[in-house]
Amino acid sequence: MTPDSHRRVRPAGTEKPAPLDLTHHYSAVTKRRVPSKIKEVYKFFGIPNILNLAGGLPHVDYFPFDTLEAQTAKPERWTPTPNYPGEKTAVSSSSSSPTSSSGPASAAHIVVPKFVKEDDPLKKVDLDTVLQYGLAPGYPPLLSWVRQFVRENLEHTTLYKGGPGVVLTCGATDGFSKCLDLFVDQWTEGVNAVNTRPGILCEPYIYNSILSQAEPHGVQFVTVNTDVAGMVATGPGGLEDILANWDPSKGKRPHLLYTVTLGHNPTGVVLSVERKKELYAICSKYDVVIIEDEPYWYLQFPSASIEEAKSRGLPIPQQRQRQQSSYSSPFKSTSSSSGYAFLDSLTPSFIALDTDGRVVRLDTFSKTVAPGCRLGWITAQPALIERFERINESTTQQPSGFTQGLITELVLGPHQTSNSKATIKNQQARSAFARLRTTRDRAAFSGWDTSGWVRWLEGLRGNYERRMVRMCRALDAGSTLITTTTTSDDNDGDSEWDAVTVTTTPLYTYSWPRGGMFVWLRMLFHSHPLWNHPAVDGPTLARALQVWLTRKPFLVLVGSGTMFSATTKVEREEGWTFYRLCFAAEAEDNIGLSGERFGEGVKAFWEVKDVDVIRKLLSEVALEEDEEGVSQLASYMGC
Amino acid sequence: MTPDSHRRVRPAGTEKPAPLDLTHHYSAVTKRRVPSKIKEVYKFFGIPNILNLAGGLPHVDYFPFDTLEAQTAKPERWTPTPNYPGEKTAVSSSSSSPTSSSGPASAAHIVVPKFVKEDDPLKKVDLDTVLQYGLAPGYPPLLSWVRQFVRENLEHTTLYKGGPGVVLTCGATDGFSKCLDLFVDQWTEGVNAVNTRPGILCEPYIYNSILSQAEPHGVQFVTVNTDVAGMVATGPGGLEDILANWDPSKGKRPHLLYTVTLGHNPTGVVLSVERKKELYAICSKYDVVIIEDEPYWYLQFPSASIEEAKSRGLPIPQQRQRQQSSYSSPFKSTSSSSGYAFLDSLTPSFIALDTDGRVVRLDTFSKTVAPGCRLGWITAQPALIERFERINESTTQQPSGFTQGLITELVLGPHQTSNSKATIKNQQARSAFARLRTTRDRAAFSGWDTSGWVRWLEGLRGNYERRMVRMCRALDAGSTLITTTTTSDDNDGDSEWDAVTVTTTPLYTYSWPRGGMFVWLRMLFHSHPLWNHPAVDGPTLARALQVWLTRKPFLVLVGSGTMFSATTKVEREEGWTFYRLCFAAEAEDNIGLSGERFGEGVKAFWEVKDVDVIRKLLSEVALEEDEEGVSQLASYMGC
C-alpha cells in the first residue's frame, strides 16, 4: 500500500464527502461480528398490546429497588477561573471555596422513580427502563444528551457527511479495550509473521494502563519524538520520519496512533491546533487511525504560562486573545460558537480536524463526575460506532443502569408530567395552560442540563487550576539548592572578611502543566554528590530518592517516570529521570504542603554523600516487597 | 495429549490436593498479561499521613454526588413456594400477592453516605471508596460478602485445597467474554491451521448471545446429544463419544464446555447431580474446562413434575424426599447444610463436584436484582481468578461503583458507628454498653444480610414458579385441536342418527420447565393441513405461525427455536420446530392470558388451508423489515 492511497480525494462540489471506509483496518474478529439473532423479533416489539414472550427479561416488579435517589451538587458549587486571564484580574489562587455552601442548601435531591408514564423513549427515565436490559449504544435519554453535547457544543464538527456518532462505554479503559478489539489482530512471536506485528505510535511517555492493555495482544509501541509542545510531526524521529522510513522487518507499519492531546498524561502538554494539523496530515497520508483519549479536555489552564513566568521572574508571555481562541473555522462547524464561552476558549481535539473520519476519541465521566461511574463514550464516524455497538453486545452489553439512571437524572432533571391536561375544558384555557406549563417547566427544571454541565466543568477547571498553581509555586520555590560555603582566612581572626561562596544547584526542571492533573519533573541527578560514585547509577539514585521522599519528615509519594515509559529503551535512557506528581488526589490543603515537602526532601537527599544510605533505603524496600498485603492491592486502579 | 494425561492422581492421604494447573489452556494473550506497573508504588500507600501524589485520582470533594440513596423492598415482599411440595399443601397458584404490601410501609430507605469513618476496608461503605477508582477483583465489602455467600452458603465446597475464589464481573455476558479472553486463541480460516480451531461443547440449543460472542473468535460449537434430562454423557452423540472419536481435521478437540445446568435456557431442564457426575468424569478424562452459566440457579421448581402430571391426568410422580435433596456428601463440604433450607433443597451446580478445579461458574445479579446492575461474579479456582483479575484490569477495571455501592448497602445495611464510646465513663458502664450496642446493632440492622438475600430469592422463586404453573396450565389446555365432523345420513331426515367423528390433533408437545424462565415447545407442524403443500416447507410454516400469533386477536410474540440453535445443522434439522415462551417478562395478570392466546392462535392457524394466507404473512414481514426504526432497536439486549 502506497502512503497516499488512503488520502481523501476531495470532491469539487461544496457538499461534504462521506467519511473514509476504514474496514481494511478492522480486526478479523470484529469483521466477523454480526448483530444478535434476536433482531429477528424486534420488529414485533412495537405492536400495541402485544404480549411479549420472546425476550428473556425479568419483570420490573421483581427489582428490589423502588427508587434510585441521590443528593447532588448544584453546578455552581465551585468557582471558575478566567478563560482569558489577561482580560481581567485572575482569581486569587486561594479562593477555591465554593460559590455557595456545600451544605444541603446547595444540594438538590434527585429521584429516578420506578415508573414514568411517557411514550418518548428519550424522555422516559425510570427504573422500568434503566434497570432493565437495554441498548448496546447506551441508555437512549443519556445517549441522546451526550450526542447532542458532542455534536452541538463540544466539537460541533461536521467535517464529513453526517458528522460523527457516539456510543457509550464503561469508561475510557473499556473504550480503549474496544479499540484494540476493533483494530488489532492478536500477534504472537514465533506464530505470526513478523511483518504482521501490530504497532501503535505514541509519545515516549504514556498513560501506563495503555501499555498493559495492548502489549499482551502482541502490540509494539513505537515512540515519536516530542518537544515542549508535544509530539513532533517532522524532522528526525518525528511522525513522518518514522512512517516514511518504516522497516517492515520490525513489524507492520503502525496503523494506530494513541495520544492524550489536552492535558497529556504524564507530561501535562496541551497540543496546539497548529501541531495537530501537521500530525493529522501525516496520519492521513499514511492511513493511520488516531485514538485520542481526552479525560482532561476541560482541564486546560490558561493562566499556566503567565503564572509560570511570574513565579520564575521571566517576561510575561503574550496573553491569549479571545479571537484567536475561538476556533470558528475550519476546526469547528458553520456555527462559530459552541454557545458557551468556556468551551469556545478551549483548544479543540483532533475530532475538530477530522475530515477523513479517522479519529476515535475516548471520553469518560471518571474525572468530571467520578471514576466509580464506569461510564464514558466514544466519538467516531458512524461506521466505526456501529462496530463498537457490536463489540458492546458481546462484552459489557451496556454501562450500569444505576450509573446511567442517576447521571441522566442529574443532567436532565425530573420528568415533566402533563397529567393536568384532563382538567382543561376549552381551547382558550388550553392555550393559556400551555403557556403556563412552559413557564412552569422552565422554573421547575432542576436538572443541570447542558448549561449546568458546562458550569460544573468550569468550576472543576477552576479548582484544579488553582491546585496546579499552588503546587507549582511550591515546587518552583524548592527547585534549587543554594549552598553557602565560607572560606576563613587563617591569618585573620575577623570573620567579617571570610570569603563566602554561594553555589546554586538546580535540582529539577519542568514546565507548568498546561492541562490535566500532573506535573512532570525531570530530576537533575547529575548534580547529586553520588552521581559519579561507582556503586550507584542514575536509576538507583532515582529509585532511592522516591523511597527517601516517603520517609519522615517528607512523607510524599511520587510516581516514577519508569512507570510511564512507552518502551524499555525510553525507560533505560531517561525514563528514570522523571517523576510524575498528581495535584488532583490529595486534600486541597495538602497541595502546597506536598510541593514544599517534595522540595525539602529533594534538597535533603542532595546532602546525602554516604552510599550506604542509598543501599539501606533500597534494601528496606526490597524487604517490604515480600510483605503480605501488597498483593492484595495488586489490582488497584487509578493512574 | 492422551485423554487421561490431565486426570488427577489422587494422593493417598486425606488432605485435599491443590487444584490442577490449567495454564496449558490459557490463551496466548492472557498468558502475557502482567499486573499493572503501578504495583511498584502500592507498598507505600499504607504509610501513615503520606501525601499521595502518585495515583492519578480525582478528589472525592469534586464528585457531584453527596449521597446515593434508594427505596428498597424488604426481603419478605414476595411469598415463597414450598421446597418439598409433597410435604404440605402447595400454595395456591394465584396467591402471588406480596406477604406485606409493596407500599412505603414495606420498603426501606438506604443511604450510601459521602464519608464513613472506618479503618476496615470491608466495612467502609461510602462514596469516598465506592465512587473512586477501585480494585479489579471488586469492591472489598461486596466481594467479601459474595465470597462468603458462595463459600459458606451457596455451594460450600472445598473439594480442593483452599476452595474456589471469586471475582466480580459486569454481569454474565461480561463474564463469558472474559472466559473467551482467558481460554480462546482467536482463529481465522485460511490463516490458522485447521487443527488449532477452538471448539466449545454445548447442547443443541443454547443461549444465543453465547454464539454471537464466541463465533467471531473463530470458535466452532460442537453439539452433544440431549435427552429430557439434559446433556447425555454416554452413547452415540454423547459427550464421551464426541471426545473419544474426535477428528482433528475438524479443529482442535474442544477444551471448553458451555452449559446452563439449573433452568437451562432455552429448554428449562435442571441437570441432576447424577448426570453431572457422569459428565464431569468425562470432562476430567479429556481435560475439558466446564463453563457453567447459572443465572437461574435459584429458580428451580419442585412442583413442576407434580403439577404437570396433574394437569395432564398422569400418575403423580414420586415426590422429592427431603433427605435426598440435601446433598450433604460428597457434593457439599463437611457441613451438611448451607444453613438455609431453601438452598439445601436446590440441585447444586458443577462447582459442587469440582475436585479438579476445572469448573468456571458464571453468576449474575441480572435476575436476582435487575439486569441494569451489570454486576455478577465468577467462581473458579484461585489461579483462574487471578487471571480474570488481570483481564478486568485491562478491560472494564471494575463494575460500576453506583451499582456496587447500592447493592452493598442493600445487603449489608448501614455502617454501625461506635461514636458513643467517648461517653462511657468506666469499665462497668462500658461492658453494659457493649451488650446494649450488640442488641441495638441487631435491632437497628436494616440491611438484608445473607438471610434476607436468601429470603428474597425464595420469594422470587415463588413468584416465578406460580407464573410457570399458570402458563403451563393454559398451554396444556390449548395443546390439542379437537375437530368434530358430522356425517349426515342422506336417506334419513333425523339428525339424531348422524355419525359424529371427533379428531384429536396434538399441536405441540413439551415438558413443564423444571427451572428458569422459559417454556420450550416443540410444534407438531406435520399435522398442519398445509404440511405437504409443495409451496410450503416446515420452516416457512413455523415463521408464518410466529407472525400469525402477533396479529389480532392473538397478539403474542414468541421466540423461534432457530434463534437458539447452536449450529446451522441443528437449525435446519429441527431448530425451526421449537418456540421459546418466557413467563418472566409480562405483567403477572397476562401470564395465563398469553398462554391462552397462544393456544387459540395455534388452533386457528391449524384451520388455515389457503397457502396465500401464509404468503401474505411473510411478505408483510419482509416489508416491515425495511422499515425505519427496526435498526434503532438492533442492539436490544435481554434474551
Description:
The structure is a homodimer of 639-residue chains. With 639 residues, the first copy, chain A, is an alpha/beta fold. Helices cover 32% and strands 14% of the residues of chain A. Chain A has a domain at 478-631: Aspartate Aminotransferase, domain 1. The first copy, chain A, is built from 19 helices and 19 strands. In chain A, strand 7 (226-227) and strand 8 form a beta hairpin. Chain A is globular, with a radius of gyration of 28 Å. Chains A and B meet through helix 1, helix 2, strand 1, strand 2 and helix 5 of A and helix 1, helix 2, strand 1, strand 2 and helix 5 of B. Chains A, B: Its cofactor is pyridoxal 5'-phosphate. Chains A, B: Residues 199-432 form the Aminotransferase class I/classII large domain. Chains A, B: InterPro entries: Aminotransferase_I/II_large, Class-I_PLP-dep_aminotransf, PyrdxlP-dep_Trfase, PyrdxlP-dep_Trfase_major.
Give average pLDDT of chain A, whole number: 87
Mind describing the biggest β-sheet of chain A?
A: 7 strands, mixed
- What gap, in angstroms, lies between the N and C termini of chain A? 38 Å
Poorly predicted regions of chain A: 89-105, 323-335, 418-445, 627-637
Integer-rounded radius of gyration of chain A: 28 Å
Name the biggest interface. A-B, 143 and 144 residues
CATH architecture of the domain at 478-631 in chain A: Alpha-Beta Complex
Percent of residues in beta strands of chain A: 5-15%
The count of strands of chain A amounts to 19
CATH fold title of the domain at 478-631 in chain A: Aspartate Aminotransferase, domain 1
Q: Any idea of the CATH class of the domain at 478-631 in chain A?
A: Alpha Beta
- Briefly note the structural class of the backbone of chain A: alpha/beta
User: Strand order across the biggest sheet of chain A?
Assistant: 4-12-11-10-9-5-6
What's the helical proportion of residues of chain A? Answer: 25-40%
What is the general shape of chain A?
Answer: globular
Oligomer: homodimer
Number of helices of chain A: 19
Keywords (chains A, B): Aminotransferase, Pyridoxal phosphate, Transferase
GO biological process, one term (chains A, B): alpha-amino acid metabolic process
InterPro entries (chains A, B): Aminotransferase_I/II_large (IPR004839), Class-I_PLP-dep_aminotransf (IPR050859), PyrdxlP-dep_Trfase (IPR015424), PyrdxlP-dep_Trfase_major (IPR015421)
Family (chains A, B): Belongs to the class-I pyridoxal-phosphate-dependent aminotransferase family.
